[in-house]
Amino acid sequence: MRAATKAASAPVRNRCNRTQRRTKRRVNILLINDEFYMTGASAALYDLAMHLKGVGHAVSVMPRVDGDGVMRQRYIDAGIPITTSANGIDLVIANTISLGDNVAKFGAQFPIIWWLHEAEIGRAMILRTPAHADGFRRAAHIVFQTDFQKEVYHSFLYDTRTETSVIPFWSEAVYQKRPTRQKSKTGKRRIVAIGTIEPRKRISDVVMAVEMLHDKNLIECLFIGKDYNLLEPPILEIIRKNPNRYQLLGEQPAASTLEYLASADAFVLASDSESQPLSLFEAFELGIPVCLSSLETYRHVGIMHGIHGLMHPVGNVPMLAANLRTVLGDPIVRSNLAKGAKLLIDTKRKVDWKVSFERVIERVWNQRRAVTPVAAATEPEKARTSATA
């Protein structure tokens, strides 16, 4: 009884050791990512890779689109091989909706776990590229971040036998080396927005909202991400004419991104589609007040207006401007939002998401091992049955 009590009270950091003892064998795991640029999804896959390597699995990574990027060097520094083939692989983890056709291809050869990070935008991508939908039938297991995603993809799941899990995750970097909060050297109040600069992130809304503020000359905005060419020409012109107010910093290393976030007076996420943004949880942990669009997914995550952040309807620029004015100008509101958000993320961190994910891996692998001997022994019979059908 004393041993059981001691195990139950062990801290999160010791759970990895217990998981390692549960795993019956070393599994060769291939991680397939979209590209090597920095996104919340790619950062989460890297954190999972480090965990799996740490508990004794053999881990390699393959990009869907090869090329340079911040994440490539991180894998190299961690000693995780970058490969172009699946030779010697036992199990595959495919990251993001854009890997749907790869899931369909690899699913016929290996047990494959599909980790979906997108919500409505993922459904739209499937409508544009129907081949992605084949992944729902071929995956051995699908991992979502929120229950909302299960609702979004319900029409692709209802006629499949694919198992699913919901595993919320958060950033590891913010806990490994906490960034030092440094105020702006200009003395201006700083707004930070992080993410690939694309229509979904609605960076244009942030620019237009700041332009509506009467004290906009006392504000500086830092935009971290790539694909600035997707911004509308009028917005790019505003940014060009006001270099002291708007800075496009491009893609940044994880440590630099966290330092910029820690220096913010407000973090803005005006997206029209999200599932569980990694940068949002990082802002919560760092005590940075948040202005964000009012999306259905946030209700499933547990984020509430006025408690964890100030929300505005998607595209409602005047309300976003009003929320920014409140967050930047009212210290009581700032303090209350920071406390509420920190409490939310602390509650979620009581369960180690990486250990939960490894349980999924163990389940999928054990199911495959149970089926494989029988399948191999009855291959001729399967062929005859298929021909008869």
From TrEMBL:
Keywords linked to the UniProt accession: Transferase
Pfam families the record matches: Glyco_trans_4_5, Glycos_transf_1
Position of the signal peptide: none
Listed name of the protein: Glycosyltransferase
Segments forming domain Glycosyl transferase family: 182-342
GO molecular function terms noted in the UniProt entry: glycosyltransferase activity
Organism domain of life: Bacteria
